[in-house]
Specification:
Blueprint lengths: L13 E6 H14 L6 E4 L6 H5 L3 H14 L32 H10 L1 H11 L5 E7 L3 H17 L4 E7 L2 H10 L2 H14 L2 H4 L2 E4 L2 H9 L13 H15 L3 H9 L11 H15 L12 E5 L5 E5 L10 H10 L7 H19 L6 H22 L9 H23 L2
Parallel strand pairs: 1-2, 1-3, 3-4, 4-5
Antiparallel strand pairs: 6-7
Length: about 425
């Protein structure tokens, strides 16, 4: 008997959505193998209405994207990390074809530009379907971005539809594309990070190791008929983070890594990390942590219960100075280092941080005053950076990252100041 909660089902009451190059190939191959699988929709850069915009040189396409982002109030935050460079340097950047040279933030903007078309297409396609399965890769710029946006749209507009996501994390294909460049490695990291921070989506995700396994998963009438096994999202994320850490990002590539996200930093830092950030911030204010720790690439400080912990900070170079190095590294280095010692130290940060944010752990007035001074300094810097939007400078992306991060810190400080 078929289990309606498993995406391994071929059913006339299921809508299959192929997203990006790998996703469209998998769904198309499954449809060829099973003539009864007729409820399908494909979304990719070479499928209309996206093809009309994406078919061209980057210098032409990016102009239309930036123009839309700047004038769309609901999505202007994308402009704070969208690279607006309109042209290219001959010989260095050739070929300047958009579909070969685009970021996840740009792909998210393109999806949102056509959200009404996608919504209308789903209304007609999902009419008699009780469930939907989105298929995409974990490391392609289109699939890793649009699959999340599409899932959010379905959850919001069709809440009664049983939605599942099938992500293809093909190690062989991934090894090939990462041999060409590092972008896919960054795309993969941010896909897993963005989707794991969305509790309503992460439980819907299944991960398979090849396109063939994905086709089998769509055609199988029961989980036992699948070729190969699925991977848990936590296992895939841990493996991805380890791969990224071993790459030991050099400074020049860090901006590329940050630019590969399609969501604000504040939306990909979960409640545990917010608590850890609160704990570290208060520890810095109370002089329980030394700024010299950054030079050793680790944190050495005392918790409020006087126990001492040490925590590695990862391989990312700092974007800011002083105490912000530590906070920035902690927010961005999510799972970049694993192991039992790291997990124990991180759990300790979470416990103290949650006590501080809830008001269970009291702060002295001097600490509250110090946090308030940091708050206004951060707010001033954020406002200064925000005034630079819309984008006008070649290197504004790095400043925009700080603005994005400072907005997250402001929220945490506000919560600490009002805690009872």
């Amino acid at each position: 008997m078929r289990n309606p909660q498993d995406p391994t089902i071929s059913s006339s009451h299921t809508l299959y959505l192929g997203v990006g190059g790998i996703g469209t190939r998998v769904v198309s191959a499954a449809a060829v193998s099973d003539q009864n699988l007729t409820s399908i929709k494909l979304f990719d850069v070479d499928v209309e209405p996206f093809a009309s915009l994406c078919a061209g040189y980057r210098c032409d396409v990016i102009h239309d994207i930036v123009k839309w982002v700047r004038t769309n109030v609901d999505h202007r935050q994308i402009a704070t990390w969208l690279d607006p460079r309109p042209g290219f340097v001959p010989l260095r950047d050739l070929p300047d074809i958009f579909v070969r040279n685009h970021s996840r933030s740009e792909m998210r903007a393109i999806f949102l530009m056509h959200a009404k078309f996608v919504s209308d297409a789903l209304v007609s396609a999902i009419h008699n379907c009780h469930s939907a399965v989105i298929v995409s890769s974990s490391f392609g710029s289109t699939g890793s971005t649009w699959s999340i946006e599409l899932a959010e749209l379905i959850c919001n507009q069709f809440p009664k539809v049983d939605l599942r996501l099938l992500a293809v994390d093909d190690s062989h294909a991934f090894a090939y594309v990462t041999h060409q460049n590092n972008w896919s490695k960054y795309f993969r990291y941010w896909f897993f990070r963005e989707i794991t921070c969305k509790e309503h989506l992460r439980s819907r995700v299944k991960i398979v190791g090849s396109e063939e396994a994905a086709v089998d998963a769509l055609l199988a009438s029961s989980p036992d008929e699948r070729r190969g096994s699925t991977i848990s999202i936590d296992e895939a994320f841990d493996r991805t983070s380890l791969d990224l850490n071993l790459a030991s990002l050099p400074g020049p590539l860090e901006a590329n890594f940050l630019e590969s996200r399609a969501q604000p930093i504040s939306s990909v830092v979960d409640s545990d990390h917010r608590a850890a950030l609160a704990c570290v911030w208060v520890a810095i204010v109370e002089s329980r942590i030394s700024l010299e720790a950054w030079s050793k690439s680790c944190l050495d400080f005392r918790l409020r219960d006087n126990s001492a912990i040490r925590m590695q900070l990862g391989s990312l170079s700092p974007l800011t100075s002083g105490w912000k190095n530590i906070l920035h590294a902690l927010a961005l280095s999510h799972r970049l280092l694993g192991g039992k010692e790291y997990r124990c130290a991180f759990d300790a940060l979470i416990r103290e941080g949650k006590d501080l944010l809830s008001g269970k752990e009291k702060m002295d007035d001097s600490v509250r005053d110090a946090l308030s001074r940091h708050r206004f300094a951060t707010e001033s810097e954020s406002n200064e950076i925000a005034s630079l939007v819309p984008l006008t400078e070649h290197d504004l992306h790095r400043s925009a990252v700080r603005h994005d991060f400072n907005s997250l810190l402001l929220g945490i400080v506000d919560q600490l100041l009002i805690s009872r």
